[in-house]
Write a sequence for this structure.
């Protein structure tokens, strides 16, 4: 199960979906792609100075140091995408906002 925890200044994604074996798990691949795209968009829009983040296998922690309108939209898109994935695969991803 992938667990996503979202608070005002933090997003933490951890775990593996277990939908299929490694390399064939479309849920893990979708979550990884969404998270990577989020970080890439933040970099593309030159907002990396507004966040701290850590990425490793099965884990992403994103901390918002300072926000602006562009960063908020990028984060909203990530949350929307992860919530949509949860609706499609409720046994493999759990999203909680605090």
């Amino acid at each position: 199960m992938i667990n996503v925890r979202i608070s005002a200044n933090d997003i933490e994604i951890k775990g593996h979906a277990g939908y299929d074996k490694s390399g064939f798990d479309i849920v893990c691949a979708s979550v990884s792609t969404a998270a990577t795209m989020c970080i890439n968009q933040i970099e593309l829009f030159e907002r990396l100075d507004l966040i701290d983040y850590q990425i490793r296998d099965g884990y992403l922690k994103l901390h918002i140091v300072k926000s602006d309108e562009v960063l908020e939209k990028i984060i909203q898109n990530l949350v929307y995408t992860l919530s949509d994935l949860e609706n499609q695969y409720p046994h493999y991803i759990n999203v909680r906002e605090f």
Remarks:
- The two ends are 19 Å apart (CA to CA).
- The longest helix spans residues 69-88.
- The beta strands are 2-6, 10-14, 51-56, 59-64, 93-97.
- The mean pLDDT is 97.
